């Protein structure tokens, strides 16, 4: 059984979808709804991505709850802004386990904590993303103006994953606007890409919208961020499954 | 392809939107995706980032702010509903006069 991280801490699990084999045994762990959704994807790659991510999510969470992956029951919390059932996907409150799942390209990342948590990952997307500057908070957008186009693309995606991690943590999502508060600003300038550290590290956090926000060290070509509920000056991260070499093992844990 | 009174037909908007989908996702196969396809579910499967980029491109190319004019975002159900929404609010799409 995996211990649920204490307050101010989060576990991070990475999965490389390209390295995962989903067989009949793994498929049997998914719910009927998950099967229906997987079957509705027209493109094999999308079906595979969805299936692998949800098999991984169930296996990771079953380790914290000490119950079989197929026994997990998910619910959807109400949005804290509008009350609609569009808030955070969650386990029953009695579990004491909070999680967040994100995937992009071949990367899946799962965050687990004892308080609400939000995580996001994005592969550097196709084409120019400068148009998204119009959605940024004005203070964040200002950091991008003096940059070269390539550096601005990096900054826009860094902004996106940080903003989305916060909005996934609070359960608001991006439907109510993504640029209503700054996520990059500081007297020293915007944060650079997160530097990979050891499997356990304490990272300086930015207090944003009631959350503690950090940029996550991510695989090459990706950017990621994690937000924990409650403003704090740092977040302690434990990478339970690193990118690549450990991902396949983690999926079978 | 331009309809009566200079309003572009839904087919014209569809063709343009398929191109936008291929660009923001980097998936060329979406240039041939059926009109009835869901945008945020299978088979297009937009996520929040690509969905926001789609809306930005729609605003830039057609001058239509979908999020501001359709608060429930019903227009984003399928490619066809988005094309109809855009076609009904646009006179001439950029570069397709």
The CATH C-level class name of chain B: Mainly Alpha
CATH topology of chain A: Ribosomal Protein L22, Chain A
CATH superfamily of chain A: 4'-phosphopantetheinyl transferase domain
Strand content of chain A: 15-25%
> What top-tier CATH class of chain A fits best?
Alpha Beta
The greatest inter-chain interface is formed by: A-B, 22 and 20 residues
Low-confidence stretches of chain A: 245-253
Count of alpha/pi helices of chain B:
4
Helical proportion of chain A, percent range: 25-40%
Measured between the Cα atoms of the first and last residue of chain A, the distance is 11 Å
Q: Give the averaged pLDDT of chain A, no decimals.
A: 88
Number of strands of chain A: 11
Q: Mind describing the biggest β-sheet of chain B?
A: none
Order of SSEs of chain A: EHHHEEEEEHHEEEEEH
Instruction: List the helices and strands of chain B in order.
Output: HHHH
In short:
The complex is a heterodimer of chains A (253) and B (97). Chain A is an alpha+beta fold.
Give a verbal description of the structure.
The complex is a heterodimer of chains A (253) and B (97). Chain A is an alpha+beta fold and 253 residues long. Chain A contains six helices and eleven strands. Chain A has one domain (9-248): Alpha-Beta Complex (Ribosomal Protein L22, Chain A), CATH 3.90.470. Chain A has helices at 24-27, 32-39, 44-65, 138-144, 149-170, 247-251; strands at residues 9-16, 75-76, 89-90, 98-104, 107-113, 117-123, 200-204, 206-208, 211-216, 222-229, 234-241. In chain A, the strands form three sheets. Chain A has a five-stranded mixed beta sheet. In chain A, strands 6-10-9-8 form a four-stranded antiparallel beta sheet, covered by helices on one side. The longest helix of chain A has 22 residues, at 44-65. Chain A is globular. Chain B is mainly alpha-helical and 97 residues long. Chain B is globular, with a radius of gyration of 12 Å. Mean pLDDT of chain B is 82; it is low at 93-97. The interface between A and B is medium-sized, with 22 and 20 residues.
């Amino acid at each position: 059984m995996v211990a649920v991280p204490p307050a101010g801490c989060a576990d991070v699990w990475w999965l490389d979808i390209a390295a995962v084999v989903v067989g009949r045994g793994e498929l049997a762990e998914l719910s009927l709804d998950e099967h229906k959704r997987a079957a509705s994807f027209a493109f094999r790659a999308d079906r595979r991505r969805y299936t692998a991510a949800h098999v991984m999510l169930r296996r990771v969470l079953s380790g914290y709850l000490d119950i079989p992956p197929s026994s997990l029951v998910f619910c959807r919390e109400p949005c804290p802004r509008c009350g609609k059932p569009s808030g955070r996907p969650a386990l029953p409150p009695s579990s004491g386990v909070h999680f967040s799942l994100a995937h992009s390209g071949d990367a899946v990342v799962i965050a687990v904590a004892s308080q609400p948590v939000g995580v996001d990952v994005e592969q550097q997307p196709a084409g120019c993303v400068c148009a998204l500057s119009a959605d940024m908070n004005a203070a964040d957008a200002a950091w991008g103006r003096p940059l070269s186009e390539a550096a601005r693309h990096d900054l826009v995606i860094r902004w996106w994953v940080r903003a989305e991690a916060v909005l996934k943590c609070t359960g608001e999502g991006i439907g109510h606007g993504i640029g209503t508060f700054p996520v990059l600003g500081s007297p020293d300038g915007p944060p650079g890409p997160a530097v990979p550290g050891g499997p356990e590290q304490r990272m300086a956090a930015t207090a944003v919208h009631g959350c503690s926000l950090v940029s996550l060290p991510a695989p090459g070509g990706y950017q990621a961020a994690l937000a924990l509920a409650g403003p704090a000056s740092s977040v302690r991260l434990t990478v339970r499954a690193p990118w690549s070499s450990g991902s396949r093992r983690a999926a079978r844990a | 392809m331009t309809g009566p009174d200079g309003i572009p037909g839904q087919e014209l908007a569809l063709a343009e939107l398929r191109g936008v989908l291929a660009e923001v996702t980097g998936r060329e196969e979406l240039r041939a995706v059926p009109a009835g396809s869901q945008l945020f579910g299978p088979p297009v499967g937009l996520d929040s980032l690509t969905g926001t980029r789609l809306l930005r491109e729609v605003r830039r190319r057609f001058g239509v702010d979908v999020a501001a004019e359709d608060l429930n975002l019903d227009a984003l159900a399928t490619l066809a509903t988005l094309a109809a929404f855009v076609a009904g609010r646009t006179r001439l799409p950029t570069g397709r006069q």
